[in-house]
Amino acid sequence: MRVSVLGELRLTDDEGRPLDLGEGSRRRRNLRALICVLALEDRPVPSSRLKALLWDDPDRDHTSVLTNLVAQARRVLPPGRLVTETGTAGARLYRLTRSTVDADDFVSEAERGDAARDKGRLATAAVHYRRAMAPWQGVTPEQTLHDLPDTEGARVRAEPLRALRVRVAEALVATQLDLGRHSDELVAEIGEHLAFDPANENLHRDRLVALYRLGRRTDALRAYQSAAAAIETELGVPPGPALRRVHEQIAAGTLPRAERDEPRARPVLRAGGLSYRGVTDYTLGGKDNTEEERAFVDKIVADTGTDATLITKDNRDCVLRMVRTLAGLGVRQFLDLGSGLPEQISPSVHQTARTAADEPPRVVYVDNDPVVAITSRAMYSGAGVAFHELDLMDVEAVLDAAGRCLDFAEPIGLIAANTLQYVGDADDDLGTAQITELVTAYVDALATGSYLALTHITGDGIDPRLRPYIDSTEPDAALPQHLRTTEQIERLLVGLPLLPPGLTDVGAWRPERPFVPRDLRIIGGIGAKV
């Protein structure tokens, strides 16, 4: 059960269906107040404390009223959600069970945003601050904690939430400015936050800065006059020195514009004259490859007599099945790490997602290969589709870029398709601990209801004749990559519960044709963030 208390009280059952609490009567208002205080307490509450939270007149005995309210609540809530326990000396305790509360999510995400910002991880902080503010979306100042009773006891719980909302709004705006995300949308967003705190000088100052960086100097000067009037009306004082200083700098044209350098991609993984991109492209029947790369693939086939080249097509087909599966589960956003060349013989992620859902998806592709970048920028265009030439190891840069297109408060399908074997230290664990930490950073930034779709080459069960060519532990391997074990690859799924059929050969993952075992194995699975 989901309990939303930050605005008007809303309840939904485990299937997301709204629960009807009724409107209007004083009795119903008391019922809503009871549910609100129980949700915010999040622990067994003695009846004496419940009365103090619900009513301010301690001399009156509200026992029978409380008993009736509890009975009403049990009739409207799902069975077993409002339980009665016995405390010390026989005291009766009440508690909501098996429920999530938007206020708890708000506080938790705010704390995670603060922790990321303290570490200098601004893009991650922005994701968490944005997610913290998500429960407040659509809530007006008048609706804030609307059904929480106006009692001294309840105000002790309400005021910290109101104050935290202001602080998180300030932090979200400041973080976006630090990231160089000044935009007309940010200016409008600051205006929405000011509706909750009209005299907030930090927000007024940041609105001036955003307008100035957008080249709207005149609007910034006008915004200062509006800010000064609001502060005078609310507090009866003029603006403080920090806001006045920004105004003076804007008037003089001396406020720094704080341009940010674009992150650079690390050099593309290569071995000699070969590129992973070119070899993969040749096995898929593409033309963006060199004579040396074609000769390398042909030599493997001739020397080993294996069908290793067929696995790349199996992998690509599996990834598209995964995308269709996620689209069928309601995912409308995708972040593709190490996207590779757009394949002419297969539809892209955004094309596949578009055909599998009623509404257009939003997709961000990321790759650090300059050839991939040139081709992708030419082919990946249109509303809701973006490509960024970035290194997937730079989580902050990727999240910063992706956050300009994707909404991290909503579910995202994170795709790492046969790309993580190329990264990680060459230690005894093949860098698995390092890459597990990397994947965890990405997954932590995703909203509940998101998914991780992963495929990865494995050394388990492959033809041993292939190892001298591709095994990173072989000193003369021409195209080295980490042939991790199934157990190591499972660790990369960072403990997420897997959709059926679990972690398996890509050709056997929800196949549309009979599975054919290959001499070179790629395995994959989808983990769900629940």
From the structure provided, what is the oligomeric state, counting identical versus distinct chains?
A: single chain
How confident is the prediction overall: mean pLDDT? 90
Q: Strand-residue fraction?
A: 5-15%
Shape: globular
The number of distinct helices, counting runs of at least 4 residues, comes to 19
| Beta strand count | 15
Mind summarizing the main beta sheet? 7 strands, mixed
CATH class of the domain at 315-528: Alpha Beta
Q: What Rg, in angstroms, do the CA atoms define?
A: 28 Å
The largest sheet has its strands arranged as 11-10-9-12-13-15-14
Protein name: Bacterial transcriptional activator domain-containing protein
GO biological process, one term: regulation of DNA-templated transcription
Keywords: Transcription, Transcription regulation
GO molecular function, one term: DNA binding
Description:
By secondary structure, this protein is α/β, with parallel strands linked by helices. Among the domains are: 2-101, Arc Repressor Mutant, subunit A, CATH 1.10.10; 315-528, 3-Layer(aba) Sandwich (Rossmann fold). It has helices at 26-41, 47-54, 63-76, 102-118, 122-133, 152-178, 184-194, 201-213, 217-235, 241-252, 276-283, 291-304, 311-328, 349-356, 370-379, 395-402, 432-444, 467-470, 486-491; strands spanning 2-4, 10-12, 45-46, 82-86, 92-96, 100-101, 270-271, 274-275, 333-337, 362-367, 385-389, 413-417, 451-458, 504-505, 521-528. Helix 1 (26-41) crosses helix 3 (63-76) and helix 5 (122-133) runs antiparallel to helix 6. The model has no long low-confidence stretch (mean pLDDT 90).
